[in-house]
Amino acid sequence: MLEHFNSAASSFAGDIDQLTWVITFLVGFWFIAAEVMFFWLIWRFRARDGVKGQYVTGKEKHLKRWINIPHGIVLVFDVVLVVAAVRVWVLVKQTLPPADRTVRIMSQQWAWTFTDPGPDGQLDTADDIRTTDELHMEVNKTYHFTLESRDVVHSFFVPAFRLKQDAMPGRTYTGWVRPTRTGTYDIECTQICGVGHGVMGARLYVETAAQHAAWMKEHASENAVAAADAAK
Amino acid sequence: MTGSEMSHTTAHAHPEGAHDAHHEQGWFLKYFWSTDHKIIGLQYMLTGMLMALVGAFMAYVFRMQLAFPGQSVPGFGVVTPGQYNMLVTNHGSIMIFWVAMPVLIAGFGNYLIPLMIGADDMVFPRLNRLSYQLFFLSVLVLATSLAVQNGGFGGAWTAYPPLSANKAYNLTPLGSSLWLVAVALEFVAFLLGGINFIVTSMNSRAPGMKAFDVPILVWTIVIASVMFMASVGPLIAGAVMLLFDQTLGTSFFNPTRGGDPILWQHLFWFFGHPEVYVVLLPAMGIVAEVMTVFARKKLFAYKTVIYTIIGTAMLSFFVWAHHQFVAGIDPRMANIFTVTTVLISIPIAEMCFVYIATLYGGSITLSTPMLWALGFMAEFLVGGVTGIYLGASGTDIFFHDTYFVIAHFHYTFFPIAIIATMSGVTFWFPKMFGRTMNEFWGKVHFWGTIIPFNGIFIPLFVLGAAGEHRRIFDYHNFPHLDTPGLGMLRMIATLSLVVMLAFQFVFIVNFLVSMFRGPRAPRNPWRSNTLEWTADSPPPHGNWPVLPDCHRGPYEYSVPGREQDFWPQDEKA
Questions:
Q1: Which is it for strands A201-207 and A183-189: parallel, antiparallel or unpaired?
Q2: In this predicted structure, what is the pLDDT of residue A64?
Q3: Which candidate among A58, B136, B145, B251 keeps its CA 20 to 30 Å from the CA of B334?
Q4: In the predicted model, what is the mean pLDDT of residues B47-60?
Q5: Mutate which: B472, B527, B552, B563, vs A, most A CBs within 10 A
Q6: For domain B3-534, which CATH number applies: 1.20.210.10, 3.40.50.2300, 1.10.150.450, 1.10.3720.10?
Q7: Measured between CB atoms, which of B331, B360, B364 is closest to A93?
Q8: Is A220 an interface residue toward B (CB < 8 Å)?
Q9: B92 has a chain A CB within 8 A of its CB
Q10: Which domains does chain A carry?
Q11: A221 touches B at CB < 8 Å
Q12: What is the average per-residue pLDDT within A143-163?
C-alpha cells in the first residue's frame, strides 16, 4: 500500500511495505469476517411478529466454540504478526551495518542542518560540507546518521526511506540507511515543535556517484574559499 | 456486617438526614448546588456536550484551514500557525478530558450507578458536588488559557517538554501553564468522582444484588475508575514537575541541566494509554445495555465479558511505550511493548466476539439507541484492526505521527465519545427527562452522523499512508504532499466534517424540543430489566419511595416459559 504513494528508496523500504501487506491480510481477514457475521446476524435475527428471542446464556458448548475457535486462531495470528513486526524492527532499528559514510543531522526550531563528511569521509575536518534543509546522499552507499536536537523534540521522517526517528535534546541517536533509488524526496519534521513546525521541511537528494562527486566538488571549492577567508 | 446489610442501613438511614431538606430548595440550589447524583450527572453530561461543541468548532476551523490553506475561515478568520497549533492542541484536550471523560464516566456514572444498583444516592454526595465544582473550575481555567496574552497552549495534548516547559520555545508562557493547571484540576475532579463510584458500587447495592447481578455498565465504570486512579498518579506528579519547570525554573525535563524529556513521555503515556480504556470501557458498557434490550437477549457469556474487561484493564498498563517506539528509547524495549500491545487483541477480540454473539438468536429492533450501539460495534472494529499497524513496531516506524494515527484513534474515540454517548443519551433520555425523543429525527441524526464520519476519516487513512504528518497547518512546504490528489482528499474530509456538524443541529433541536415538548414517557418504555427503569421518569430526589430488592441478573430476556420477554431484576420469582 505504501508503495502506491511513496517511492521505495531505501534498502529496508520493501521490508516495511511487505510487513504492511502481511498485517493487512491478517487483520483484513478478521475485519471482514467479523463485519460480515455482524451484519448477517442483524439481518437474520431482525424482529418478526410472533417470533421471540432465544434464551442463550453463552455457556452452551456448541455455541461457545464459535467464540473459542476464532479466539485460538487470533492467538496464532498474533504470533505471526509479532514475529514479522519484530524482524523488520530489528533490521531497521537494532542493527548497524558497517558504514560507508556518516552524516550528522542537527535539528532546531525550525530548520535542519546536515553535515556531510566531505571528500575525506571524516566528520569534523575542514572539508566537511554543511547544508541547511538540504541533504545529499549517494545511492547504494550505507550511511550512518547521528541525530540531535538543539532545543525541543523534533522527528526526522523520510517517507521514501520508511524511516522515522525522534531527535531528542540531550541525546545523540545513531541509525543507518542505505538509499537505493535516485531522486528528490521530502524530509518532514513529524513531532510538533512550535509555531514553525509546519515549515520545518527539507529536501533529500539521492544522487548517482557521479552527481554526488560533482556536488561535493562544488562545495569543496566553497570550503576552500571559506578557509582562505578565515586564514586572512 | 455484610455488604448487602450495610447498603440497607446506609440507604435507609439517608432520608432522615439530607434528602428531606432538599425538597424546598430554589432553582439555583437545586441545579447548581445539588448533591443529588442525577443532577450532578446531568451537569457533567451537559457541560461535556457543550464542550463538545467547542471542540467541534475547533476541528471545523483547522480542517477548513487544511482544505483551503490561507483562506479566511467563515466564523473565525485567517488561521495563523500559532492559532493552528492552539486549535489542534485544545481540540484534543477538550475532546478527551472535557467531553469523553465527563460525559461517559462522570455523566452516565453519576446518573446511572445509584439507579442501576438500587441506591438512593452516592455514598459521598458532598464529595460528588465538589467533584463537579472542581470540574467546572477546570473548564473556566481552560477557557481563560485560551484568552490570555500570547494565546492558548499549542504544544499538542501530549505536551512534550522541552516545548511545553520553556516559554522561549512555545511562546505561550501563560497559556501553557493555565492549560496544565486546568488538566490537573480535571484529574482531581475525576479522582473524587471515581472514589464515589467505587465505594457506592461496593456498598450500596440493592439487597440480593450479588457481584454478578450488577449490570455491565456499572462494572465498566467501576473498573475504569480503578484504572484511572492507578494511572493518574504518575501524570499528576509529572504535571506538577512540568509546572515547576515552567514557572519556578526547575529542570526535571530540561536536558541542558540534567533533566530528561523522555521521563515526561513515560509519565504521560503510563496514564495516557490506560486512559483510552478508561473511556472505552463505559462505552462498551452502554452498548451492552442497549444491545441486550433491543435484541431481547441475555448477554452472551456475562462472566466472560467481565473477565475480558479486567484482562484489558490490566494489560493496558503494560503497553504505554508503544507511543514511544521511535522516541529514542532503547530499541530492544520496543519488542517487549509490541508483544504486550498485540496481546491486548486477545481480550478485546474476545469482547467483540461476545458482543456479536449476543445478537445470535435475538429479536432485533433497530430503534435509534440500537442503531447507535450497532454503529459503535461496526466502526470500533475499524479502529481496533487499524491499531495493529501502529502496535507492530516495524510498521509504526512509518505510520507514527502520520494521519494514519489520527484516522485510527478517531475510529476508536469517535465511536466511544460520540456514538456510544448518543446511544446512551437516546436510550436513557426517557428516564432522565420523563419524555420521549423523536425516533424519526433520531434516525436522521444517526445516518447524518455515521456516513460523513466515515467520509472524514477514510481519506485520512490514505493521507497517512502517503506520509502526511500531523499538526501541519499548510502542506505547501512539502512538495510530495502538496499534490492535487492529496489536496482533494483533504477537501473531502473537511466537507464531510461540515456535513456531519450540520446534522448535529438536528440532534440539538430534537433534544431540546423533546425535553420540553416530547410525549410523556412511561416508566419502562423499552421493557428493560435493570433497576433504573423501576423508578419514576424522571426519578425524584432519593429515587424510590421504597428501595428495590434484586432477585436476578440484569439480562434475563426471552426466558422460556414466561409470557413477557423480559424479567425485571426487582420482580419477585
A1: antiparallel
A2: 87
A3: B251
A4: 97
A5: B472
A6: 1.20.210.10
A7: B331
A8: no
A9: no
A10: 2-94 (1.10.287), 101-231 (2.60.40.420)
A11: no
A12: 96
